[in-house]
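Give me the fold.
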Amino acid sequence: MAANPVATLPEASERSSEVRVLARGLAILRAFEPANEWRTNTELSAVAGLPKPTVSRITANLTEAGYLLYSAERAAYRLSTSVLALGFVAASYRNLVVIARPLMKAFADEHNVSVVLASPDRDSMVCNEVAHSDAMLFTLRIRAGSRLRMGQSAMGRAWIGSMGDAERDRALAKLAQADPESWSVLHGQVKSLVAQMQRRQFCVASGTVEHGTNGVAVVVDTPEGPHSFALGCAAPSSILSVARIESTVAPGLLKLKQRLEAELGAEAQAVEI
């Protein structure tokens, strides 16, 4: 007997409502990025773009479930360690950070730059690890957990430039909705970004993350898939000229990329054995 389509409507509506509540809950959790500072419902409402009564209901539920901590003295919330545990479970290549951290620091000190390992998330690149040269008087105002807009980072540009045509079209379509400004910057540069990545395997960006700063980035392939991460470095243009990037820093960054990929591949093979 054929199912009654009308009978399925309440179920579909209920599922849609549940997904909407979940999306709102995740938006509130993301509002604590990158420093996990104490935030009131009013602050969370402004950051997440949700009505305050809705935020109040969701924060109460998240606190009861153990995902938020509540301070009566501050009348504010912050993420609990339960969320941190979820993050570690989701980070299938968290070992990459462990492998990369000392290598990034050595590279930063050798070239007097800041080095960032990041992964794409929706309309931005999320910094997984950051290393600064001890000799730098000026460092980028970013740390692990910071988000960089696609159009303002060499890493975002390298990621876009490394994709196949169909994948890039989908990514740019999503970016056009989520961040029209970044899309407008990148859309007109796609051919140049693709050419850079195909010809040299790195992408140079001048004055994008911060004024007077130059950067360069490569993508890191993992056994899970291509361009899973981006690895970049940046410094004031007075220290890191485009000429120096192309002659010294970019070749060194490519060697670092190759080392990370080799170690990840060896690790994956060891797990299979």
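The longest strand covers residues 225-236.
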